[in-house]
Design goal:
four-stranded mixed β-sheet; alpha+beta; Glutathione S-transferase Yfyf (Class Pi), Chain A, domain 2; glutathione transferase activity; 2 domains; Glutaredoxin
């Protein structure tokens, strides 16, 4: 049975679920959504997600939204013994902590800066760039530290979630690759371990990088 995924293909929570599903062998049927000129999703989508949250899934009549909830559902139902989600209590708690940190801090704060720049078609410079570095890049670099992986010594769902969010800004010129060496190194290393990375978001990153060069 193929699971229907309702997603805006350029949004990072949707990257996350597409990468995760592919990694654990779950087939998704993409139901691509688009925002209108006023930034609204189609009104009928409220039947799937009353709060108009993306992504959402329909698994044979079972509907679920919020990317973290979808993540847990897919792992528990389709990959209950996957190394992506450790069974050791402390490691599991650390993975959960990272998932919560990305959804409650990294994603919204980074999106505030990046989406604002995209809407205005203006590059982050001066004080805006310094604020982005102080509120997003420095905390993220501290979060990943010197470790090869977010939790433990192997790839977990925490890494996939981190990279899906970082993909929206690390490749852009606003990230000084010589200043945030650990962060960029982590991103490049983990990205290479996710075979579905390009399918989920690589194409968009190439387009966004080109588009970014046209900003004021």
């Amino acid at each position: 049975m193929t699971i229907e995924l309702y997603a805006v293909v350029t949004r990072e929570p949707c990257f996350f679920i597409r990468m995760l599903a592919k990694h654990i062998g779950v087939e998704l049927e993409l139901k691509a959504l688009e925002y209108d000129k006023d930034g609204r999703l189609p009104a009928e989508y409220a039947k799937i997600s009353p709060l108009m949250k993306i992504p959402a899934i329909n698994d044979d009549g079972f509907i679920l939204y919020e990317s973290t909830a979808i993540c847990y559902y897919l792992l528990n139902k389709y990959a209950p013994v996957s190394p992506l989600y450790p069974k050791e209590v402390e490691k599991c708690a650390l993975v959960d902590q990272m998932l919560c940190t990305v959804s409650s801090f990294v994603q919204p704060v980074a999106s505030f800066h990046i989406r604002g720049s995209i809407v205005k078609r203006k590059k982050l410079t001066g004080n805006a760039l310094r604020t982005f570095e102080e509120t997003v890049l420095h905390p993220l670099e501290q979060l990943v530290g010197d470790n090869a992986f977010a939790v433990g010594d192997s790839l977990t769902v925490a890494d996939i979630r981190l990279v899906s969010s970082m993909a929206c800004f690390v490749p852009l010129p606003i990230v000084d690759k010589t200043k945030f060496i650990k962060l960029v190194s982590y991103y490049e290393r983990i990205r290479a371990l996710i075979p579905s990375f390009h399918e989920a978001c690589g194409w968009m990153l190439e387009e966004r990088s080109k588009d970014w060069e046209t900003y004021e």
